[in-house]
Amino acid sequence: MVSPHVARPAADRAAGRGEAAGPAAPYLRVKQHLKEGLAEGRWPPGALMPSEAELVAQFGVSRMTVNRALRELQSEGLVDRSQGVGTFAAPLHRVSSKLTIRDLHDEIESRGHRHHAVVHLLRAEKAPAALAGQLDVATGARVFHSLIVHHEDDLPLQCEDRYVNPACCPGYLEADFTRVTPTQLLFETTALWRAQYSIEAAAPTAEEARLLGIAPHEPCLVVTRRTFTRAAPITIARLVHPGSRYLLQGEFQP
To answer: What domains, with CATH codes, occur in the chain?
Structure first.
């Protein structure tokens, strides 16, 4: 424990109070070093990472600074910490699960209800420029496109419009999406590393309203999610949920 009579560096005092830190804050240098090492595979899943004492010596910072960097990496799902044992690189599947919304099939069945899916479209298409940029493929290149409506019992709960980079999942078009969800398939067949997502309240498109059996202007929860391997984008999906039928829940524990 730090004595109240011992002066601490300004960045450490800011970290202790939860104040905003500048781009050159010591904890950010430690955090970025570790994130880059994880991305490069320096520490494979399950590997023991440098100890707090080693990082303190390497960067010439306090233990509090190192601890903050590790806490943030843990909150992002990138590392596991075990008191008295050390810090470990998190399994890739768990990293991806923390960064994406829970698979709808598991969510529905956890409530004791039945999930079933209706596949409205599953084919290869040529990528227009905007989509090609998001999937990091050439304009006009072949991409996979699926449009699936997921039901809870007999009630449409989600319209999933998804594009997939064929280089990451070559067998996507052969999958039976009445038996496995695209999320389940991609977890099993790709090395998911990170995800980007946005959540907004918006009206559905005319086609989405028709597929979900709702009024054209009914408020919906719309999630847009893009996932990546270490080397390339895997998929981009638009997930539309009728606001009257779906509640996005979570839990936070400091």
So the answer is: 10-90 (1.10.10.10), 100-242 (3.40.1410.10)
Pull the structure tokens for residue 109: 């069945």
Orientation of helix 63-75 relative to helix 52-59, angle to 10°: 120
* pLDDT tens-place string over residues 2-30: 333 333 333 343 434 333 444 558 889 99
What is the rounded distance in angstroms from the CA atom of residue 60 to the CA atom of residue 222?
A: 45
CA distances (Å), origin 124, targets 78, 121, 127, 141, 171: 34, 10, 9, 10, 12
* pTM greater than the 0.85 cutoff: no
